[in-house]
Inverse folding.
């Protein structure tokens, strides 16, 4: 019996078989979904059809006689009769392949794409077998660099428009384009304008030939020598799905996987090329203890020297055993898998009994707020016709793959964007309203947007059509999603929390999508690595769930990271455990981080690299990296997907959960885990929100991952008082950029040189007011220090503010910040 | 009014027949507003403004004014394709005349720019449009200059702009210069170019920009000559217009004759009355093939049209008759070649044009036209192979699949050149390159064979067509 069409579905005939197509489905997709593969080069399901390569021509009869039509351009219509193997179709496909090959160099033996090349594969499957072309082929200069990481061989290019369409439609970086015409048509960059896109690596992945190659992989391996596993990118909290490809136990490439709910196959270049850091020779490979320059271990030695695990663990366990629970703190953990986080939560809270545990580094938001507000998925945020409110950082700089999803929603799917940001973002051009919010004033702007005069104060120097933006939100008919994150490291969490709660009050149906960026930070919240929380989005009040499997549960809510560091600086912390926490680089108060490291008793650092922070530790334990461990990851939606081990970790480094087990063992407690699966099994036993989620269930839906729902009751902290803005000072906006001096970028040779460098961006009228010229180096005097930076004019910065990028070479911005202040005011001093 | 009327000037020849669009061409100052007003200028516009717009549209529909750009689609019908209630809409004038051999629109723009502007205004009035774009080919400097001057004059005199001639009808006409690309003559590529993009054809459907055109809005794209007919039609009425020409193709058409005739030039010819023989040999027309030579072949409608030969001389100059005979009138470019012409070289010359003008968007055209050109160049260079003839035909078949005389289609015979062409490409440019190849090989296969096997250069038409062996 042939299948029947339901509702809006369309019944067509393909090669004599009835096929049911979905409404609006393209013929090529309907055929592929039902098992008939039509060859193609230009067609890509995530980009608009262009019908350029003509490879997908098939015989189609829509009632007016059959004709060759491009199946990538044709929506299925009722009664359509399609022949994909007719004589005419075969001849057309033979012809197109022959055309594509006449100028193609056929240098497959030395081409990186050889073995995974759609042109090669489809020539074998559909091609004529031999060429009748005896003329001279087209010649271009062999590969040219289109940017720092991507090379272009125009002779191999078959001009399918995939890379150029990606640059234009998906990334919005129109920096590569067709040039010249006829047989000389080529893809190229404009003179002196490289393809400087955060997303250029995607063009390499979608290239159907070996025209675009990425330097990090170029000439490293042949595809048939690669082994691959599907995994999750742990670089940022989007949790993009990737394949990890390796040869000879070394990771050589990450490729994006098209997960419909997450990254659609796209990756930022940082996610794509960061594998180089995991493979870097500077990875910690052995435990380190204090010693002298000769390698002898001395208790307060100036150096770190290699030590056996047994000795390092004994030392660490000894320090933990000796310290009262209230004088132990654990900071960090966003790098870890869910399983490692759970093991550490159990060790810290269940065994050691401390609640001074926080995975965030003073640059995030309270975990109970993130878990307490109604949460949105990426798909919900990107609903066609929906409304997006951005109250946070620039997604383009911090969460690349999410930026591409958001951009698609706003540019192509009719979503309306309202920005409440402190400076221009990558999405501003597409926003219905982009309000410039002065640091500390977001809540006031929200009140003003909804015409709430009771606050009595109009927003100070914040600008834009506040009323118009409010009207857009009030009139929104589709779902409203607030993208919530920390817009600036120079502003405390408090003012952002106040604004988020104000939005929640005015738009009770709006849902929130967290923009907290650091790796598995949302997993850390779910696994209890936050003060007052326990695994499974539970609080200390839910302790009874844990009585059977945990030795104990703390009864008093502990300190967050900033409070822990203050306590450590005051000498109140005997053991400070750093789970991949680079305090000196990431805590927005370098002075506090330094004093905390100096004031803490024993510092135990578990990390991948010997960062400056790690160099201050007493015990250093090397951890296995993301491509070296099995486990799961929780992304910013709360979606759990698998992280799969592909290669061996360097030296004797170990998974973090194993280190927790080893330490617990020395403290006389058996955590009960011999594998990540054991950890997950215990989690499903104690967690209400993970209860139905077996490892098999996650593995079964491995590409999409599984969304974990359920949250906490919303807790309202006291609102933060923001001091008035004095006209003589500039209010500081400090943000992260895609490329910086962060430890992973610094250890990825392909990315390390891409940091834009330090500069202070000032609104042009503000520059005139201060009498500074473009490029002039000035002193910016902050609460805890001074930086010297060149000034640039930037109309995307609000008047009254100055914008700095943190973690740029040569300028230590975090060192001048005071994490205790709600906002940071700086004085501009001409030199 | 210093200048007097001459019967042929700068490429135009007055053949004594009806002059619906070329009536002013004989005047040296035909492009000025003064001459235009002195010779019935803007009378058609005034007549139009006295009617309701729908009636003006009806008049044009009734006149059966066929598009003069090449496809011959009735303008009045095309105007009716705009979806209701979608505004704004635009009129775009396709002045990117660049088919090899075509230069009639250039003369219309150079010699009577006001007539074109008047036509634009009438079309805008009929359709309720307030914005018109005049897209003129990049190389036509004189046409651009004269249209610019004429627009300034017309704005100053109140014919263009706000509240034209005291009515509530307002139109802005913008002159836009092309950058020099044949493909921009294709209406969707022209719109892309006008929008500032690379001139590449858009994908169909929608088949007409009237649905989705410039800036995504309904857009009427009309040829220069089509619009130039409107003043006459409005002045004299559709019935008077239909008295000229044939039933299916009323009125006159302009033909640009070039090549081996005694008097090449642009002729305004009554459709369906005059034959190719009249045109080539008539005393008022081209006055015969040049001294001492015989007609070898001619292209009836621009480089994309399949070729005609002696046996087609009595076909009337009318779209339906020419179509029935297997070619097209296209854009009115007639290229006449006498017996001194080397068919292989002529074929190469045209194919080279298409190869160079291919926009590069779709593979069969980008790669196929270049390949054909290289094969033909190789044959001309004396390195042809016997298999090249079938190769040329099969490459052509892969661009424009049809019953060509290749092995796969042997049963279908040699005599059918499918027209309009079937295509594996997006637009007809690629298939256009196939027409000269199929036409020449079909007729002059012996010349190809002589070139390939003996290295003969031409003329070889002294050799009977059958002597080549497989030619016919």
């Amino acid at each position: 019996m042939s299948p029947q069409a339901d509702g809006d579905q369309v019944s067509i005939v393909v090669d004599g078989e009835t096929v049911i197509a979905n409404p609006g489905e393209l013929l090529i997709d309907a055929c592929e979904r039902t098992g008939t593969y039509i060859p193609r080069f230009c067609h890509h399901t995530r980009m608009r059809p262009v019908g350029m390569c003509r490879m997908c021509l098939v015989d189609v009869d829509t009632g007016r006689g059959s004709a060759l039509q491009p199946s990538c351009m044709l929506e299925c219509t009722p009664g359509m009769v399609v022949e994909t193997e007719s004589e005419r179709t075969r001849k057309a496909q033979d012809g197109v392949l022959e055309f594509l090959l006449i100028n193609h160099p056929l240098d497959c033996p030395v081409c990186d794409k050889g073995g995974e090349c759609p042109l090669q594969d489809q020539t074998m499957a559909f091609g004529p077998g031999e060429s009748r072309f005896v003329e001279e082929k087209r010649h271009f200069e062999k590969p040219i660099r289109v940017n720092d990481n991507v090379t272009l061989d125009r002779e191999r290019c078959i001009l399918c428009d995939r890379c150029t369409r990606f640059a234009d439609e998906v990334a919005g970086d129109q920096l590569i384009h067709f040039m010249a015409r006829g047989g000389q048509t080529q893809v190229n960059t404009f003179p002196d304008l490289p393809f400087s896109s955060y997303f250029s690596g995607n063009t390499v992945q979608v290239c159907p030939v070996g025209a675009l190659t990425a330097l990090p992989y170029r000439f490293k391996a042949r595809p048939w020598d690669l082994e691959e596993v599907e995994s999750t990118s742990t670089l940022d909290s989007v949790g993009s799905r990737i394949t990890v490809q390796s040869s000879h136990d070394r990771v050589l490439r990450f490729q994006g996987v098209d997960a419909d709910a997450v990254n659609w196959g796209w990756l930022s270049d940082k996610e794509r090329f960061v594998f180089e850091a995991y493979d870097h020779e500077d990875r910690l490979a052995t435990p380190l203890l204090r010693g002298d320059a000769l390698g002898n271990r001395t208790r307060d030695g100036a150096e770190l020297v290699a030590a056996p695990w047994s000795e390092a663990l004994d030392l660490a366990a000894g320090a933990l055993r000796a310290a009262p629970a209230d004088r132990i703190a654990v900071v960090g953990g966003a790098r870890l898998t869910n399983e490692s986080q759970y093991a550490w939560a159990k060790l810290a809270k269940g065994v050691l009994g401390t609640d001074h545990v926080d995975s965030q580094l003073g640059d995030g938001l309270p975990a109970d707020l993130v878990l307490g507000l109604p949460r949105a998925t990426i798909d919900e945020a990107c609903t066609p016709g929906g409304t997006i409110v951005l109250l946070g950082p620039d997604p383009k700089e911090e969460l690349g793959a999410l930026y591409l999803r958001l951009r698609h929603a706003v540019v192509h799917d009719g979503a309306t964007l309202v920005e409440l940001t402190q400076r221009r973002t990558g999405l501003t051009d597409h926003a219905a309203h982009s309000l410039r919010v002065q640091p500390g004033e977001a809540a006031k702007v929200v009140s003003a947007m909804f015409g709430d005069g009771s606050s009595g104060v109009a927003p100070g120097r914040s600008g834009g059509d506040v009323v118009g933006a409010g009207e857009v939100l009030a009139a929104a008919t589709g779902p409203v999603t607030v993208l919530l994150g920390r817009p600036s490291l120079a502003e405390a969490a408090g003012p952002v929390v106040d604004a988020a709660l104000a939005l929640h009050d005015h738009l009770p149906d709006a849902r929130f999508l967290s923009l907290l960026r650091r790796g598995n930070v949302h997993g850390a919240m779910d696994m209890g690595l936050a003060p007052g929380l326990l695994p499974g989005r539970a609080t200390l009040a839910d302790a009874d769930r844990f009585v059977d499997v945990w030795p104990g549960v703390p009864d008093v809510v502990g300190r967050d990271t900033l409070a822990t560091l203050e306590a450590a600086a005051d000498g109140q912390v005997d053991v400070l455990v750093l789970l991949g926490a680079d305090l000196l680089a990431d805590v927005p108060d370098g002075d506090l981080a330094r004093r905390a490291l100096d004031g803490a008793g024993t510092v135990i650092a578990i990390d991948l690299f010997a960062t400056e922070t790690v160099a201050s530790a007493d015990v250093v334990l090397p951890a296995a990296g993301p491509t070296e461990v099995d486990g799961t990851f929780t992304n910013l939606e709360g979606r759990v997907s698998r992280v799969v081990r592909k290669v061996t970790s360097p030296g004797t480094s170990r998974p973090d959960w194993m280190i927790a087990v080893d330490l617990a063992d020395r403290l006389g407690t058996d955590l009960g885990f011999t594998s990540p699966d054991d950890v997950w099994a215990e989690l499903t036993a104690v967690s209400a929100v993970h209860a139905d989620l077996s490892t098999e269930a996650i593995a079964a839906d491995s590409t999409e991952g599984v969304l974990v729902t359920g949250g906490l009751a919303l807790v309202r902290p006291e609102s933060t008082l923001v001091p008035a803005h004095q006209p003589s000072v500039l209010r500081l906006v400090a943000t992260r950029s895609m490329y910086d001096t962060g430890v992973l970028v610094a250890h990825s040779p392909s990315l390390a040189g891409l940091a834009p460098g330090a500069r202070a961006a000032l609104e042009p009228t503000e520059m005139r007011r201060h009498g500074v010229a473009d490029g002039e180096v000035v002193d910016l005097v902050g609460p805890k220090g001074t930086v010297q930076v060149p000034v640039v004019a930037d109309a995307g910065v609000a008047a009254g503010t100055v914008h700095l990028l943190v973690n740029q070479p040569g300028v230590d911005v975090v060192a001048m910040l005071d994490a205790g202040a709600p906002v940071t005011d700086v004085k501009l001093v001409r030199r | 009014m210093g200048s007097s009327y001459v019967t042929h000037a700068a490429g135009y020849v007055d053949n004594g027949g009806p002059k619906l669009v070329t009536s002013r061409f004989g005047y040296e100052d035909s492009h000025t507003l003064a001459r235009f007003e002195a010779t019935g200028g803007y009378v058609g516009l005034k007549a139009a403004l006295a009617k309701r717009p729908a009636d003006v549209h009806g008049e044009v529909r009734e006149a059966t004014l066929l598009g003069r750009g090449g496809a011959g689609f009735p303008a009045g019908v095309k105007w009716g394709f705009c979806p209701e209630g979608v505004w704004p809409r635009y009129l775009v004038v396709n002045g990117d005349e660049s088919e090899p051999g075509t230069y009639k629109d250039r003369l219309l723009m150079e010699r009577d720019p006001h007539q074109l502007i008047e036509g634009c205004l009438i079309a805008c009035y009929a359709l309720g449009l307030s914005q018109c774009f005049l897209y003129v080919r990049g190389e036509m400097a004189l046409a651009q200059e004269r249209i610019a001057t004429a627009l300034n004059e017309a704005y100053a005199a109140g014919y263009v702009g706000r509240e034209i001639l005291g009515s509530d009808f307002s139109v802005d006409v913008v002159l836009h210069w092309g950058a020099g690309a044949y493909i921009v003559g294709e209406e969707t590529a022209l719109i892309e170019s006008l929008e500032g993009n690379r001139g590449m054809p858009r994908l169909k459907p929608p088949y007409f920009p009237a649905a989705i055109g410039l800036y995504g809005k309904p857009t009427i794209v009309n040829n220069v000559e089509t619009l130039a007919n409107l003043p006459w039609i409005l002045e004299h009425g559709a019935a008077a217009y239909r008295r000229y020409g044939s039933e299916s193709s009323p009125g006159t058409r302009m033909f640009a004759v070039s090549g081996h005739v005694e008097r090449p030039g642009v002729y305004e010819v009554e459709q369906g009355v005059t034959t190719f023989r009249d045109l080539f040999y008539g005393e008022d027309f081209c006055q015969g093939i040049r001294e001492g030579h015989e007609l070898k072949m001619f292209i009836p409608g621009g480089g994309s049209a399949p070729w005609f030969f002696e046996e087609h001389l009595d076909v009337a100059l009318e779209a339906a008759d020419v179509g029935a005979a297997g070619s097209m009138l296209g854009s009115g470019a007639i290229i006449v070649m006498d017996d001194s012409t080397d068919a292989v070289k002529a074929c190469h010359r045209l194919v080279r044009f298409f190869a160079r003008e291919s926009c590069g968007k779709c593979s069969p055209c980008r790669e196929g036209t270049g390949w054909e050109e290289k094969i033909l160049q190789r044959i001309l260079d004396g390195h042809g192979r016997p298999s090249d003839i079938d190769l040329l035909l099969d490459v052509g078949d892969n661009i424009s699949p049809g019953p060509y005389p290749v092995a796969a289609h042997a049963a279908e015979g040699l005599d059918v050149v499918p027209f309009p062409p079937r295509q594996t490409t997006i637009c007809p440019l690629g298939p256009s390159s196939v027409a000269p190849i199929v036409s020449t090989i079909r007729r002059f296969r012996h010349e190809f064979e002589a070139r390939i096997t003996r290295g003969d250069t031409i003329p070889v038409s002294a050799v009977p067509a059958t002597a080549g062996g497989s030619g016919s």
